[in-house]
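Re: the request from the purification team.
They wanted to know what the chain is likely to look like in 3D before they choose a buffer screen. I agreed to run a prediction and write the result into the notebook, where they can find it.
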Amino acid sequence: MRSLRFRLPALFLLAIVLAGLVSTAIAVSVSKSYAESTARKQAFRELRLEAIGLTALYSRVAGDSRLGSRQLEQATGDRIFYTGLDLFPGQTTAFTPLPKRFFDYAAVRRGTTLQFQFRPPGAKEEFLGVARPVELGSRVFGALIVAKPVTRLNQAWLPLVWRLLPAFLTGVIVAGLLGWYLSRRITRPVVALSHAADEVATGHYGVAVPVVPGGGEISDLSERFGQMAVQLREAEELERNFLMTVSHELRTPLTAIRGHVEALLEGVVEDEDARTKSLEIISLEADRLERLVGDVLDLAKLDTRRFTVLQEEVDMERLVDRAYSAFGEEARRRSIDYRRRVDGTPVIETDGDRVLQVISNLLANAFRWTPDGGRVELGLAQVDGTIRVAVDDSGPGIAADERERIFRPFWSRDGHGTGLGLAIAHELAGALGGRIELKTERGHGSRFELVLPVRPNRG
């Protein structure tokens, strides 16, 4: 009973039943009032006609014992009363007398026909009555009252109830079937999504997500769930690739360091120049390890918002020169046309080390994808209250479907490297109050531009 498949049709049916009961009660109330009013008018009309007929009859044949009150009451189904002089002296056929206080007898004596409601002496129920004068010749001897019980009028609306009852029951059955059908349509994809969620919880991210046509909240939920499953699958793949890549990146310098250390310990390297070369290699590989571990730690700090940004005056031209100089040797070795362009010498308040790290990561990415003999350009400019550091390369460019993913951690376009450089640069740029803009064309290189505010946001 806690299932949505039960609750939905139950609530739907309950709402329909309540609405039906309220509607039926209102309809019965209105119809009862109308039926009683109509029945009352009809009753008075019938009583008036009977009174006219009976008074005319007794005006012609007064005292005829063959026309007794019991026979007429049985024939008409109504009660007959009389007020006034005795029309049947000494006979037992006289009508039931009605005291004059129950109606305006004087008005009847003047020839007026009255209709009224009354309770005869000794009776337990109300009557509707029509009083009409009884005339013999030109003289009024009394009033003949034809009456019927009011309870007959109260029963006039009962046929309506018996007509509404089947309609109400039919409506409840139809509403129940409709609620069951709708609940099945609504809950079927929800149940399927629940099963899919169970599969995702166990690590099966390739589960088939039900497609719900027609739009709406359930369709939107299904679509979002499918996107979530895809992202989780991609995240798992990225994590797996990252572990494999980091393992490889760590093993390579460790292997080199171990090899040279063992050679030094065993005395294999006796020449002083060779010993110096081995120590330089050990130092370089240690620096490589430090950079890799630092990248991982920086990304972890950025993800947990535990990253501290310093504020200091930074000469952007000198900072760009430092970044430019760090890649000069690689550019010479690979015959890359490496250029520097500075338009202005801005000084801003920011974290110089982190800005240098972003620029260095962008340059490292450019040199990685620029072929030997290609072109890399580093530019600095101040435009509309912002500082822009652009890194252009003549690499292969970036496909449209990869332009968002290149800034995700652990994602690499060729499956090599840690995939942390651009991710860290992107997060650092945001932490510094700026952003990284990308302009690229397939086959014509890329342009990564760090945009920083001249005045830091002190929020």
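For the purification team: Residues 312-453 form a domain with the Heat Shock Protein 90 fold (CATH 3.30.565.10).
Please add any questions underneath this entry.
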